[in-house]
Amino acid sequence: MAEEIDYESGIPPYRQLAAILRARIEAREIKGRFPSERTLSQEYGVATGTVRKAVAILRDEGYITTAHGWGSQVVAPDQRGEG
Amino acid sequence: MAEEIDYESGIPPYRQLAAILRARIEAREIKGRFPSERTLSQEYGVATGTVRKAVAILRDEGYITTAHGWGSQVVAPDQRGEG
DNA sequence: AGACATTTGTACGTATGTATG
DNA sequence: GCATACATACGTACAAATGTC
Fold it and tell me: CA of B7 vs C1' of C12, distance in Å?
């Protein structure tokens, strides 16, 4: 059961989504290839713009790398500092 | 003469396109290999993203199957419930 | 084995309209 | 008015799979 966005919390959905995905990466629940923007949009019921913002945060934090025309790849824990 | 997208109707173009294509399939006007996204995009004057959404609906409904690098195939009527 | 065209998959950037806070 | 988010749409670029030559 995946966590969901809480619209009552006051925290912007894109930040919540980033936090959820970050947790899933650190829990090794997501590894290797990262879900596509479309998939995440449908799974969490948010717009693509929101997903892109969340993904941008994780990319900025070094959790994933993104390649145009391919998608995103989860960076191995030992490649980013042994989370 | 193919139906066209009505931008005044209030119904999203991708849903209209899905409905048009669904009708063409059920009328046996389209069978075998399904037109490519590019073809449909040009034929109906919509963007590829719009076509992809419409095609995704038909795939979800079981009207067609899609293969990467090949295209889509119309599912035979007797394979989906004798429409 | 290699080159090429076709087609889908994914992402990027941008834009419009609506709704909410 | 402004910021945020949703929903939709446009066009473009690159990646990957398939089929053909």
Answer: 26
